[in-house]
Fold:
Amino acid sequence: MPVAGCQSPVTSRRLPVASNQSSVASHRPVISLARRLCLIACLALVTLPAQAAQVSVRVLDPQGAAVAGARVAAYAEGSHTPQAIAITAADGVASLNAEASRAYTVEVLAPGFAPDRRSITPEAGGATVDMKLRVATQATTVVVTAARTPLPQDETGADTATLDSAELTNMQPLNAVDAIRFLPGAIVSMNGQRGGLGSLLVRGGESRYNKVIVDGVAVNDPGGTYDFSALPMDQVDRLEFLRGAQSTLYGSDAMTSVVQVWSRQGSTRAPELRFGADGGNLATARGYASLAGARGRLDYNLFGQQFNTEGQGINDSYAQSSQGANLGGALAPGIDLRLRARHDNDRAGIQSFWNFNGQPLLPPDQDERSRQNNFLSSLDLNVNRGRLQNRFSGFEYHHRRLDADSVQEPGRVSPLFGNFDLPFSSTADYNRAGFEYVGDYSARDWSRTTFGYHFEDENGFFGDLTAPPVSHGLRRNHAVYGEQVITWRRLSLVGGARFLHNESFGNRVVPRIAATLLALRGGHLFSGSRLRFAYATGIKEPRFEESFGIGGYGIIPNPTLRPEENRSFETGFEQGFWGNRASLSATYFNNLFRDRIDFTFDPTTFISQYVNVNRSLAHGVETEVHLRATNRLSIDGSYTYTSSQILAAPFATDPLLQPGMPLVRRPKHAGTMLLSYTGRRWGGDLAGTFVGPRLDSDFGIGLLPPITHTAGYGRLDLGLWRALNSRLTAYINVDNLLDRHYEEAAGYPALGINFRAGMRFRLGGD
Structure:
């Protein structure tokens, strides 16, 4: 290859012969060295690789704000192998190493948005490419929970509902119950008003069959119990609700669903202070503040809130305070560290069982109370090594709870048992801590592999302080797992398994397989017909009192207790319309719950124990309709039909819990509706939940006539906000807009109409 300033060694002309031989001889080494250097330079230029370039991709939402945590991958034109993969930082930027002047396809997968692909050609010296994402339809929304890595919803083979930051801003939920009740397939049951025990029933399962994860930390009690009313939603950026057995990726307790929330990250170069306050009827007041930003390699968000209400009756006051932090920083290119922590205190008066369908059966309890103190923290080290993403996590969750009733009130009497208002002081102090490694490997654009190792130490003290001694439980659990996702043309396949060693019940293997097929691509009106199928098993470890007993009550340990199990399969379809701006889907689910744990009592020895004896079945259909009318307006609706039956319950004494009966508090018919609008200057939502009549019980109180059901109900909530200027926003939220009297759990009246109105301010920021 001819190069300026050099002659090719093959075609170079001879040097002229000098008349002085000694002079020629003295110059030969110099000439030889020059030729050699010229040859080396020519060969080096011929074999020099293409000049490297660094491409910075800035990912933005439709309003132009930075999107953190998006997965950005670059593929050489015509190649299925990713050249580079990176995760966007707090400023929405991901840096990729590529070759200058070579065409690439860049793919962005950001949770809550539609996937985006764009062709680029990097130039030497680097460049920044802005990619503004669009709002997704339900089918194309990128979710994380289904595969522990960003994937479009239609490739996961799972049913996932999401609430993004804009929808949460419209709703302004105080806790998880206020948000989840409007999602498809969710049956919420609150024991009374704010501060009462909040349960979530999904596809016929128990409330303790749901895995709850906050900022990467599982917050269930050992054995799955969780009070959904105690999860504050302050500074939550996104909520995902995944239905179906998911023990393969999330371990024990993910029997029927996974609920996962993430805290907001700071993203503005200038520090941004947000604060506000609101108040309403029932002596309700709330104040909150946050300080967030991103500077250089560091991003931060510090936040806190306080909420108080007197409620609408005797002993119905409730107070909640919460504080948190989300801090992240880049240690080096492709290596970042993130620390997240949350703490909350809850104090509530509990009226207990006293009113049924508007008829006072008993006086409300005037001194029963509940206290909770919860703390969680996680430290994540993320290491990006080309096609392999690694996350090393350490985590801890500490939960303390006290439920107490100090006075035996004379009016709380039943015909069968007399005064049942017995004093108690039930305490629980649980700590879950451990380590997890998760790897995500992308061999091709059609292949994603997730694998990991999980260790957890569960330690707890529990019992009744009025009946000592307090019991102690300890479990150390290990798990390894893997899942493979393959997307080939119209077909998406998911397969995985988890091997779990639990110190209470030993070893278990839980598999999951799923498949989706785009049967018809369709056109603009009918925009694709997709079929789905999934099969999985789920397990739930026993609660501590079930495995280790409660000495003060004569309940002995059962070291041979097995986990409760769920054999789950589902199948369904999804039909898109109008360029996938609308969709209709239906899913048939079938759950067989085996080895359910029940309580047995020996009247001769007065010794009790928990044993595996019960079985039940739940199956039905979930239908959903989603319409993205504009980029700002969405309409979502759902209807769920559930049929359940107790198959075996040999120790049941309540007629409602006998074999052949439906499961209590599982309605046959339920529906949701959510209309949400988010504009530049104003926004709002109208949310509804509709629940049919269901079997219910007073669970042995002995009232005459006995309680056997709870009536159906409908509830509407309204939220509106208006930006008065770029720094000041006014808002109002009204719960139970039509002031309906209803009960989610028999004997516990729900709140009537209640509202909060306030202002929020923003200082600083970009």
